[in-house]
Write a structure and sequence with these properties.
Helix content is about 0%, strand content about 50%. The protein is mostly beta strands and about 100 residues long. The chain has one domain: Roll (SH3 type barrels). The chain has a six-stranded antiparallel beta sheet with strand order 6-3-2-1-7-8, with no helix packed on it. β2 and β3 form a beta hairpin. The radius of gyration is 17 Å and the shape is elongated. The two termini are about 15 Å apart.
Amino acid sequence: MGAKLKKGDKVIVLTGKDKGKEGEIASVNTSTGKCIVGGVNQAVRHTKQSQNAAGGRVPVDMPIQLSNLALVDPKEGGPTRVGFRMEGDKKVRFAKKSGALIDG
């Protein structure tokens, strides 16, 4: 089965402390079922000062479960589920809410 969420997709968080926040997927780890979304699920990491970087508290994006994310509908703007259909010889993803193509 094809991947419902891919790198570069605009998603919205459905549950957790960042519920309602939107961001773009930076990376997907299919083996753990998690991905990193820019600006979402941030943790503060303390870094030591080095010759080329200042030390201090640095916010880092942590992985979030794929089941807690939904794609943002390209036409209507809200969260939507993802479906697959054939457009000619090509398998494409579409938003189930509005029917708009996501990639294609």
